[in-house]
Specification:
The structure is a single chain. The protein has a domain at about 10-40. The protein is mostly helical. It contains 3 helices and no strands. Helix 1 packs across helix 2 (about 25-40).
């Protein structure tokens, strides 16, 4: 199919770069870039928080008391 399109400068630069790197024609470069854009993007994986046991149990409901426990009485 023949048609006329106007490419934005960033798209034209990407086409030209692909043409130079792969020694291909304009139509092939535009088609390949268009196909890349048509591919579905994979869904991100489920977030999982990793935890590790530190062997230290501190009640942090009272912040000043927790700091004193961790850093000594001078932390106040």
């Amino acid at each position: 199919m023949r048609t006329t399109v106007v490419l934005d400068s960033d798209v034209a630069a990407a086409v030209e770069q692909m043409r130079r790197e792969r020694a291909i024609g304009l139509s092939q470069a535009v088609n390949e870039l268009a196909r890349r854009g048509l591919r579905p993007t994979p869904a991100p994986g489920e977030f999982r928080q990793r935890t590790a046991r530190l062997g230290l149990r501190i009640d942090v409901t009272n912040v000043a008391e927790a700091l004193e426990h961790l850093h000594g009485p001078a932390s106040r």
